[in-house]
């Protein structure tokens, strides 16, 4: 990701570099910071040559062992993501872009906190199957 960000900046296509490391946002140009889950995240803006309009870009690099969860989270719209999270919660799990975790209810929250270890799945289809949710190809995920 560092090479991509540097290349875009050299070509004047990317501006306002902001990296995310927990919270709050930190301005750290061209530097990657890993998060606790191992996901590298870059938030920034890009422009097209000859245009003033800026576009927000989010770049995320997921480790192989949680890649399926990242694909699910970023290839569907918010409606699908909410449905999948609700199905997971009805089965006693918490779903996010880093895994499917057994829910723990000792936190006092209505939905429960996520447990510390995610179930392991290699593909998005395995996650859909586990949740008994009909398989949707990525291009079908805008509900």
Automatic annotation (TrEMBL):
Q: Which residues form a coiled coil?
A: none
Name the UniProt key words of this record, in alphabetical order. DNA damage, DNA repair, DNA-directed DNA polymerase, Nucleotidyltransferase, Nucleus, Transferase
Which Gene Ontology biological process is one annotated for this entry? double-strand break repair via nonhomologous end joining
Q: Got a GO cellular component term for this one?
A: nucleus
Q: Where is the DNA polymerase beta thumb domain?
A: 71-142
Q: Where in the cell is it found?
A: Nucleus
Superkingdom is Eukaryota
Q: Which GO terms describe its molecular function?
A: DNA binding; DNA-directed DNA polymerase activity; metal ion binding
Q: What is its main location?
A: nucleus
Pfam families noted in UniProt = DNA_pol_B_thumb
Keyword Transferase in record: yes
Which reaction equations make up its catalytic activity?
A: DNA(n) + a 2'-deoxyribonucleoside 5'-triphosphate = DNA(n+1) + diphosphate
Entry EC no(s): 2.7.7.7
Q: Describe the function of this protein.
A: DNA polymerase that functions in several pathways of DNA repair. Involved in base excision repair (BER) responsible for repair of lesions that give rise to abasic (AP) sites in DNA. Also contributes to DNA double-strand break repair by non-homologous end joining and homologous recombination. Has both template-dependent and template-independent (terminal transferase) DNA polymerase activities. Has also a 5'-deoxyribose-5-phosphate lyase (dRP lyase) activity.
Which family would the database say this protein is a member of? Answer: Belongs to the DNA polymerase type-X family.
Q: Report the protein name in the record.
A: DNA polymerase
Q: Which organism is it from?
A: Sphenostylis stenocarpa
